[in-house]
């Protein structure tokens, strides 16, 4: 396949590099410093199993998606519509756009802009940008993707590239399961700047997480969503399987960037208000992150 990664941060670069290592033609679309590093020496992918420089094309221009069979759409949720509009003129008619983003409504938002097939993906991977052209992988890496005309073909290629991939008819339930994990951990990790394994040992933290999760499940039930899996076990497992991982929200705040909190705890608060479901724990975490963002932006 020819693959384009739109929004080549830690997540997109990880999956792009795995596909490139398997022989696919991959182009990363990202920020100038990152693109320059990849052009100069390839992408450094540092994992527990290997540490390698993976040669790929890279560009700062959305037009680089031209001719791609698969677009891994990895921009921040706040940039969904604008990024979709940027790639729209350049997409091949039969290209599949796979949304690898936090939140539960990005595929619908992309679909409102593009006429291409769009499929949501649920991402379970711990990665971080360790510098321009350098991605560090801490663990996991599986994907759950929605059915589409090309999903089976894409899943086969991903599996062959070492990415465990499942096609599910209830991706909405999986997206909500992932949203609940993010709501439980992201803001707490961001406010404290602690990794998950240390975070959960804090006084009262498990009680706060329990309250956040209960609210999320109540909102999901009111939405008519069938949340996938054992939420309690998944919540406990995150700290065990990703003990050194800082949340994406924590990484954003550490770099002075705006986070996706509006599409995580903020979404739960908004949907709770619309459906008459109280969400006080989520509201507190949402407000705390917004205050920290405002403090940084005011500097």
Question: What would you note in describing this structure?
Answer:
- The chain starts with a strand and ends with a helix.
- It is globular, with a radius of gyration of 18 Å.
- β1 (2-6), α1 (10-21) and β2 (25-29) form a beta-alpha-beta unit.
- The mean pLDDT is 96.
- With 299 residues, it is of the alpha/beta class.
- It has helices at residues 10-21, 32-41, 80-87, 106-111, 151-160, 171-192, 196-199, 205-223, 231-241, 248-254, 265-275, 280-297, and strands at 2-6, 25-29, 43-46, 51-54, 57-59, 70-73, 96-99, 117-131, 134-145, 165-167.
- Strands 1, 2, 3, 4, 5, 6, 7, 8, 9 and 10 form a ten-stranded mixed beta sheet that branches.
Low-confidence stretches: none
| Quaternary structure state of the chains depicted | single chain
What class, by secondary structure content? alpha/beta
User: Count the strands?
Assistant: 10
- What is the count of helical runs? 12
Secondary-structure element order, N to C: EHEHEEEEHEHEEHEHHHHHHH
Our estimate of the beta-strand percent is 15-25%
Shape: globular
What is Rg? 18 Å
Give the helix proportion (percent range): 40-55%
Largest sheet: 10 strands, mixed
> What is the residue-mean pLDDT, rounded to a whole number?
96
N-C termini distance: 45 Å
């Amino acid at each position: 396949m020819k693959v384009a990664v739109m929004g080549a941060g830690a997540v997109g670069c990880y999956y792009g590099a795995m596909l490139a290592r398997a022989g696919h033609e991959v182009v990363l679309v990202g920020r100038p410093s990152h693109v320059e590093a990849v052009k100069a020496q390839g992408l450094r992918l540092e994992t527990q199993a290997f540490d390698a420089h993976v040669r790929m094309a890279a560009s700062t221009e959305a037009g680089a998606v031209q001719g791609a069979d698969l677009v891994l759409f990895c921009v921040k949720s706040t940039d969904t519509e604008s990024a979709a509009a940027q790639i729209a003129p350049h997409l091949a008619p039969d290209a599949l756009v796979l949304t690898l983003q936090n939140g539960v409504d990005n595929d619908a938002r992309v679909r409102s802009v593009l006429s291409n097939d769009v499929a949501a993906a649920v991402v379970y991977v711990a990665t971080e940008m360790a510098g321009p052209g350098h991605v560090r992988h801490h663990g996991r890496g599986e994907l759950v993707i929605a059915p589409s005309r090309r999903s089976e073909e894409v899943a086969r290629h991903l599996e062959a590239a070492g990415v465990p991939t499942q096609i599910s008819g209830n991706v909405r339930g999986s997206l909500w399961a992932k949203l609940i994990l993010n709501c439980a951990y992201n803001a707490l990790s961001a406010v404290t700047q602690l990794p998950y394994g240390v975070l959960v040992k804090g006084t009262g933290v498990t009680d706060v997480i329990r309250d956040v999760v209960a609210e999320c499940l109540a909102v999901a039930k009111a939405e008519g969503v069938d949340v996938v899996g054992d939420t309690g076990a998944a919540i406990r497992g995150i700290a065990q399987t990703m003990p050194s991982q800082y949340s994406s929200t924590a990484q954003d705040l550490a770099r002075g960037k705006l986070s996706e909190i509006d599409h995580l705890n903020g979404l739960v608060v908004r949907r709770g208000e619309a459906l008459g479901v109280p969400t006080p724990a989520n509201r507190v975490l949402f407000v705390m992150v917004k205050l920290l963002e405002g403090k940084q932006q005011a500097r």
